[in-house]
Write a structure and sequence with these properties.
6-stranded mixed β-sheet, 23 strands, 5-stranded mixed β-sheet, alpha+beta, 2 domains, 20% strand, 557 residues
């Protein structure tokens, strides 16, 4: 669901690398099309004598300032606008989970439902499976991050009840979180800490990094959910509170009805809570608020609550470090969801971080966290039931308050306050009208998404750029034998690249504005994508489930 912003000056909102190369003779790739979707079970080495995984450096998820190495991730950007999110590379977060009730909903505010909330947030996979559950928030994020973060915390041991009926309550998540914080302080000051119990933690426990803000407040309310036009929905939002180290204040918070847990999985359905918690780490929605297209084809947790987070998301959170492949090579990948494997083809002048423009490749497969949803689907969305390479175009260039939205921070993204683009058609709400497009030769405007799948086999009439309900499928992936390039006349370039050609987005530089809707710009025709890719093989692997080898040719055309 959409993140909400409150009293902020700006409209807003890795670590395994099990990649090993083969050996033998190098062969130049052709740029012609065609694919063979079979999966081989051969374990033989592919002859190759050129560059492999070991010959390329990994992208950076940190920067050095004053001789000190610091994390560079989405939270870095939000801290720059004084809106710290949940730290994605913390040793352990201390999330405060608040079961929030009302005087008229005592039938919902039961001990049994307290147990369900606690298990949905902090239960183990072993506890949940016998109950019909899948993953808790803690088990999901501790696995999805490859142990880079530990999602932890405590649920209040009782319902925090507002002193009126839910029909008399207004103010949504912010009001509820503030009420609950005050209630916590009042109870803690009582003998044996009142309703919190003798073993209750001081409120400073929930500020594990000592920045004066509670790490994250999650409010699970007992009232029924209604629709996104009301406060009775699921969302993440922020307050304008100042920090207080001695008595930490609410900054980032989640707000959702207990109803979302009852959508399935025996009443322990964590999907919506996982999606919203992705926002608390700093991730954007990847679906379109303007309901025009579906640039990730729904198969992602920040799109339609499915499977696992994409490797781009994990890269931007500091959970994985992709290989930066900038030469001819044969690259080996294992499923990203379990290993963190992925690689990028960098744009000219690439700054080495998640916050730039690049093409990303990852091996998608129904294994690990993705297995259940990919094989069975979730609600109206199906996943990838067969392995294949997902190719995505990322434009995550950041901007700062000093330079403004129109000037990307190519050299020092750590000074940014947010990324320039989102995945809504025609750009971010609140930014200049029509600012996020690439002028095409035919006079049309190619809208720039932040994160977009490039489909292998696609219908030009109906694809992820033309339908808000488009569901990516196995055929959207590049299977064994498939080839990809963006040379002139390529259907991929014409359909999926905002330029309609092999020009990167950064080929365009905004130079000014004639009025609120008319910009001036320059186009550098030398900033082109000239790589060709061939999926040489996708084989079964006893250790990883699947293994792919991808041939990259740097100057193919």
């Amino acid at each position: 669901m959409k993140k909400q912003l409150f009293i902020l000056p700006v409209v807003a909102l890795l670590l395994t690398g099990c990649m090993n190369g083969g050996g033998g003779k190098k062969k130049k790739s052709s740029t012609s099309g065609g694919s063979d979707s079979s999966i081989t079970s051969s374990s033989g080495e592919i002859p190759w004598s050129g560059k492999t995984n070991k010959d390329f450096e990994k992208a950076k998820v940190s920067y050095v300032e004053g001789g000190v190495e610091k994390p560079l991730n989405r939270n870095t950007l939000y801290r720059n606008q004084n809106a710290p999110h949940l730290d994605p590379v913390s040793k352990e977060s201390h999330v405060m989970v608040i079961p929030f009730g009302f005087t008229d909903l005592t039938s919902v505010q039961t001990e049994a439902n307290l147990d369900k909330i606690n298990k949905t947030f902090f239960g183990t996979e072993e506890e949940l499976k016998p109950l019909g559950g899948w993953q808790s928030l803690a088990s999901f994020y501790n696995t999805s991050s490859y142990g880079r973060t530990k999602f932890a915390g405590k649920m209040l041991p009782t319902w925090c009840v507002y002193d009126k009926a839910h029909t008399s309550f207004s103010g949504g998540g912010i009001k509820a979180a503030e009420f609950a914080r005050d209630w916590y302080l009042e109870e803690y000051a009582k003998a044996n800490h009142g309703a919190l119990g003798a073993d209750a933690e001081p409120i400073t426990y929930f500020d594990s990094d000592g920045d004066g803000f509670l790490d994250l407040v999650w409010v699970v309310y007992s009232a029924p959910t209604v629709d996104p036009s009301t406060d009775w929905w699921a969302y993440v939002t922020y307050t304008g509170n100042a920090a207080d180290v001695s008595s930490p204040t609410v900054k980032t918070l989640g707000w959702a009805s207990i109803d979302w847990m009852a959508k399935g999985f025996g009443g322990y359905d964590s999907h919506t809570f996982i999606h919203e918690t992705g926002h608390t780490f700093g991730l954007d929605d990847y679906y379109d608020y303007n309901k025009t297209w579906s640039r990730m084809g729904r198969v992602d947790f920040m799109d339609n609550n499915l499977g696992d987070h994409a490797m781009y998301s994990k890269f931007s959170l500091g959970w994985t470090e992709p290989l930066v492949v900038n030469d001819d090579a044969l690259i080996t990948l294992h499923p990203g969801t379990t290993t963190g494997d992925c690689f990028i083809l960098p744009s000219p002048g690439y700054n080495g971080t998640a916050f730039d423009e690049y093409i990303m490749l990852e091996l998608m497969a129904p294994v690990g966290l993705a297995e259940r949803d990919y094989k069975n689907g979730y609600e109206s969305t199906t996943g990838f039931s067969q392995p294949g390479i997902r190719i995505t175009h990322v434009d995550a260039r950041a901007y700062s308050g000093a330079t403004g939205h129109d000037v990307p921070l190519t050299d020092n993204p750590q000074k940014g306050i947010d990324v320039r683009l989102d995945n809504s058609y025609m750009g971010r709400t609140g930014i200049k009208v029509d600012s996020d497009y690439f002028p095409r030769e035919d006079g049309t405007k190619g809208c720039m998404p932040q994160f977009s799948i490039i489909e292998s086999n696609f219908d030009k009439a109906q694809n992820s750029t033309t339908s808000t309900s488009f569901n990516a499928s196995n055929n959207s992936l590049f299977r064994q034998g498939a080839r990809f390039n963006l040379k002139a006349g390529s259907g991929w370039a014409e359909t999926f690249m905002p330029s309609g050609s092999n020009l990167w987005n950064k080929a365009k530089t905004i130079t000014g504005w004639k009025d609120a809707q008319t910009q001036t710009y320059t186009i550098d025709t030398n900033i082109t994508f000239n790589y060709a890719i061939k999926v040489v093989s996708i084989t079964e692997s006893a250790e990883f489930g699947y293994e792919a080898k991808i041939e990259v040719t740097k100057d193919a055309y």
